[in-house]
Design a protein that fits this description.
The chain is about 60% helix and about 0% strand. The protein is an all-alpha fold. A hairpin with a 3-residue loop joins β1 and β2. α6 runs antiparallel to α12.
């Protein structure tokens, strides 16, 4: 991931000093990654029916509160503290983030620990929010909030340590994950599958129409995600003294555009239309797939990776109808499958000339890197799937994970938040105003039943 975690690029000074430029760069990138969580909320919110919009937004926004506090209290220490056996970390100075020098540098990087901590915090916030898309329309908000707290503690923090921390067992194995193909997307996608196996299908799944209520909102969310993803990927090098972040930035744009075209091409051949939902979903699939590979491949490799991811993810979203699992907003089809594709293709397309000297099969590296990537993919997937299932099952047994049938039919917005996203009957020309005006009455006059 950053210079202090991955093999150092050629020419990086052995003794680092604080760089105001790199510090500012990573702070800006941190803000961009933070924006991804509201962007995700809009993306998911537009894809659900009207009766669940606010709940969908809140399932993302609540992560900003819960994970932020846990990260400060102990999460940063568990993920990036002193290694213990390659599986977890701890550092008492990181507990509460109160015993760190203002200019104390993170590892061999040129940015302060505080800056690295806040950058990584935004990753930790986003990851459980990704899971929420699989659970639209049918889970208790309190159960979801508890699941976030437990999941980041026993799944995300340890997996982040495995993949990115100096001493993490997948890091030492040589698995390449520049910005979160395994730790973020496979982790969240596998967790989504584990939870939906517990909560079950929505009422009317495969029978009732469950179309997105606002495609403009979906496109807005996708655009915000695309914008924020430059901070997500390029910022993961913690600076740009050697040009690696610039390559990651370019590859992010290239793969995303290619994936969008790949998805739309498949969609046209399969269904006969180019849809806005397909464009948005294809772009997100490309962003997911390039995340682990953006510092390892060339722009041409990014094109190939994007097209492959776009087509495969477009194919994968239909699997829920074949196998009968209700992944409401295609978290498994996009994030799990996209994360797997991007992580494995590192083993084919890694050039050995960007973030490290590791080469993929197509660049003379043989099958070694592909084997390492496969180990990382399988281990993170299985760990997250099993533990997420157990956590969801425990919550379901203790307090119930799913809302009641009447609440689900009426809408989770009213049941959980006592609000609705749109007031069509209010002053300003809503349905009631038009009806009463047509009757020759004042729009504000009470109409007897």
């Amino acid at each position: 991931m950053p210079p202090g975690i991955l093999p150092l690029a050629d020419g990086l000074a052995e003794k680092a000093t604080l760089s105001p430029a790199n510090t500012g760069f990573v702070l800006v990138c941190s803000a961009l990654v933070m924006l991804m969580t509201p962007g995700l909320a809009f993306f998911y919110g537009g894809m659900v029916r009207v009766k669940s919009v606010l709940n969908m937004l809140m399932m993302s926004f609540i992560s900003l509160g819960i994970v932020t506090l846990l990260w400060v209290l102990y999460g940063f220490g568990l993920a990036f503290g002193t290694d213990a056996g390659g599986v977890i970390g701890w550092n008492g100075d990181f507990a509460g983030l109160g015993h760190i020098g203002l200019t104390q540098l993170w590892g061999t990087s040129t940015i302060p620990i505080y800056v690295f901590a806040v950058f990584q915090l935004m990753f930790a916030v986003l990851t459980p929010a990704l899971i929420s898309g699989a659970l639209a329309d049918r889970v208790k908000f309190t159960a979801w909030a508890l699941f976030i707290a437990l999941w980041v503690t026993v799944v995300y923090f340890p997996v982040a340590h495995w993949v990115w921390a100096d001493g993490g067992w997948l890091f030492k194995l040589g698995v390449i994950d520049f910005a979160g193909g395994t730790a973020v997307h496979i982790n969240a996608g596998a967790a989504a599958l584990g939870v939906i196996l517990v909560v079950g299908k929505r009422i009317g799944f495969k029978k009732d129409p469950m179309r997105p209520h606002s495609l403009p909102l979906v496109m807005l969310g996708a655009g915000l995600l695309w914008f924020g993803w430059f901070g997500f990927n390029a910022g993961s090098w913690l600076g740009n003294d050697d040009g690696v972040a610039a390559v990651a930035f370019l590859n992010t744009q290239v793969a995303t555009g290619a994936a969008m075209l790949g998805w739309l091409g498949y969609e046209k051949l399969r269904h006969g239309s180019f849809t806005t939902l397909g464009a948005a979903s294809g772009a997100v699939a490309g962003l997911v797939a390039i995340t682990p590979a953006c510092g390892a491949v060339s722009p041409l490799g990014a094109i190939a990776l994007g097209v492959i991811a776009g087509v495969l993810c477009a194919m994968a979203v239909g699997l829920k109808y074949r196998f009968g699992y209700d992944d409401s907003l295609d978290v498994i089809g996009v994030h799990l499958v996209g994360g797997i594709v991007g992580s494995l293709l590192v083993g084919l397309f890694a050039t050995g000339g960007v973030q490290s000297h590791a080469k993929g099969l197509f660049y003379g590296g043989g099958f070694a890197q592909l084997g390492k990537q496969t180990v990382g993919v399988v281990c993170v997937l299985l760990y997250s799937l099993v533990v997420s299932y157990v956590l969801a099952k425990a919550i379901d047994l203790v307090m119930g994970f799913r809302v009641g049938e009447d609440e689900e039919i009426t809408g989770v917005d009213q049941a959980a938040h006592a609000e609705t996203a749109y007031d069509f009957a209010g002053a300003g020309g809503g349905t009631a105003a038009r009806r009463t005006t047509a009757l020759g009455e004042s729009p504000t006059k009470k109409v007897d039943a």
